[in-house]
Amino acid sequence: MAYLDSEKVANLLRVVILVLISVVAISSRLFSVIRFESIIHEFDPWFNYRTTQYLVENGFYEFWNWFDSDSWYPLGRVVGGTLYPGIMVTSATIYKVLQVLGIPLDIREVCVFLAPVFSSFTAIAAYLLTNEVKGPVAGLLAAAFMGIAPGYISRSVAGSYDNEAIAIFLLVFTFYLWLKSVHKGSMLLSCTTALFYFYMVSAWGGYVFIINMIPLHVFTLLAMGRYSNNLYISYSTFYVIGTLASMQIPFVGFQPTFTSEHMASLGTFGLLQLVAFSYYLNSLVSKKTMHYIIGVGFSVIVALMGLALVYLTMTKKIAPWAGRFYSMWDTGYAKIHVPIIASVSEHQPTVWTSFFMDLNILIWLFPVGIYFTFSTLTDNQVFLIIYAVFGSYFAGVMVRLILTLTPIVCILAAIGVSEVFNVYLDFRVDSRTLALKQSSKSESNKEPSPKASSEPSKVHKMNVLNKLARLSVVLGFSSLLILFQFHSTWVTSNAYSSPSVVLASSDQHGNRNIIDDFREGYTWLNQNTDESAKIMSWWDYGYQLAGMANRTTLVDNNTWNNTHIATVGKILASNEKNAHRLVKELDIDYILIIYGGMLGYSGDDINKFLWMIRIGQNIYPEDLKEELFYNSQGQYAIGDNASPRMKECIMHKMSYYRTASVMGPNGMDRARRQKLPSSVTLEYFEEVFTSENWMVRLYKPKDFDNLDRLPPV
């Protein structure tokens, strides 16, 4: 009977384990579908879903040249030139392939399950990267961690059809290909790296992280004196092909040649050419001449390059850092200069509890992996350390970027655990014990002495204690990993699997209640308003309104026009007369307000209102002042003790209109835990719809015969 080679058995086991990890990765992301239904989550994904539908129905050419007149009314939006098309093209391609194979799956199902499927690819990519750096044991652990880590699951559950659904896979796989190409010095691998980088550019704005991390790795290796032909071939090929390919995405265009975010890659490319040229000269001229060339010639060149960079930056030939990127270096910048960025919850600095929630035990194993990585500092391991340092910093300044930190935490934690297991899972008798045993055997032919006869028993006791110590460490680490699995499952099922459009609550008896006010409101708009109706809401709800209600919106989550968004903020902060005039001038048919005071939903418009004012006062500083919306005690109040300006604005009136009649004269706003205003009236607007739990409220401006009698704005 022929037995399989041990290496073949090991390879087969790795494949089986990776398949099981992939199954677990997909399965753990299906709670949202099981508990609710197959639906697109959050706000941004609704735009991705709507554009994917358009792509499938009309073809790529029409999609690429689509002018969407139903968004940003009356401006419209050139869709093809203002989005990253990667996720739409990926879903449409999968849909078409399934149709060819005779599998009639709806495009919605493809979009809903895209993220879980790609999460399994990400786990495999984590295995490949870690295996390249450390070995297969660490690789399998990294894949397992990546498959269940809440920091990644938060953006990859079923229905989470955002750009990150495929982008994290592309991030990890591109880094794997880069390290592989540096190790092999293969131009083919470098070209493949560039192609996957291009795919990443088409999918997510986070591609900037890649195009800064790889040059930083090259620069660090040069600074460490680790220049090699492999490094030169890999980076030169990657940079040229990757940059040219990335410029084919209209939304990116020529940014790689004139924006600050891309200058590090360009500068590193130039520096690498100088270093390569110096090595070439070194083979042609004497050592003394070479020192002179390096000391004088290269210093002059580097100085001129620095001066050129400063000049181009000062003259605006090189665009400065965009507000979102600049706020990563100056954490207070966005709140002062670009409040619309600071108003987004995922752009806030990360609190420690978020790290423990999303990474749990991995956050403790992370530095262990860094320690072992430092112990054998190869070129690939230098990359991991750089990634760990910058990933940790960016995740600290912006909570959203825990997503980019999670892969390196999983990889380094896996390296740490694998090193511990390599030591403590070795239950073989060590060399010292063998020496003692051999010594006892050699003495057996002699007359035994009391001391000699006691040596074997001591050896046995030491061996038993050694094995018990090793076993206790292994069991301790295994218990922690099992607890991590339970934690990840609990977080996934309870915190990250609820779609924003469908809320769930439990009563005192534990019965589950579904709150479906968002879809109730969107359905009412779709069925009871004219197809050409223009709906005004805060920008958070624009994509959902366009996708679910199929109506024209003024602003949405693209947030490309601050003036337009500030105008919406100004309307909501104005009194009825002024708001009515502005609404009529902008040809608005309905105003949508989200109010959570009845249920205790804290994510409503009243809680966001201060950010609306801050954004609006950047454009209209004379009309809007934040301090006017605080009462005499400096409090942000909503009841009878609210400031006069607060009571007059339509945001306050539309939120609290008729609430006292339902909650009673002593009713409380459950979201803010303040007493409701006793009396709220409307003269220029009429209520047309309020959802079951009063979360979605719709108002229509009244028509007057003589609008000229209204006071000017």
Automatic annotation (TrEMBL):
Keyword Chaperone included in the entry's annotation: no
E.C. designation(s): 2.4.99.18
Intracellular or extracellular location(s): Endomembrane system
Chief place of localization: membrane
GO molecular function, one term: dolichyl-diphosphooligosaccharide-protein glycotransferase activity
A cellular component annotation (GO) from this entry: endomembrane system
Transmembrane segments annotated in the record for this chain: 12-34, 78-98, 110-129, 135-153, 165-183, 195-219, 231-251, 263-281, 293-314, 355-374, 381-399, 405-425, 468-486
Pathway where it operates: Protein modification; protein glycosylation
Domain named Oligosaccharyl transferase STT3 N-terminal: residues: 13-413
Disordered, as annotated region: 439-458
Catalytic activity: a di-trans,poly-cis-dolichyl diphosphooligosaccharide + L-asparaginyl-[protein] = N(4)-(oligosaccharide-(1->4)-N-acetyl-beta-D-glucosaminyl-(1->4)-N-acetyl-beta-D-glucosaminyl)-L-asparaginyl-[protein] + a di-trans,poly-cis-dolichyl diphosphate + H(+)
UniProt domain STT3/PglB/AglB core: residue ranges: 535-590
Bilayer topology: Multi-pass membrane protein
Family: Belongs to the STT3 family.
This protein's name: dolichyl-diphosphooligosaccharide--protein glycotransferase
Source organism of the structure: Smittium mucronatum
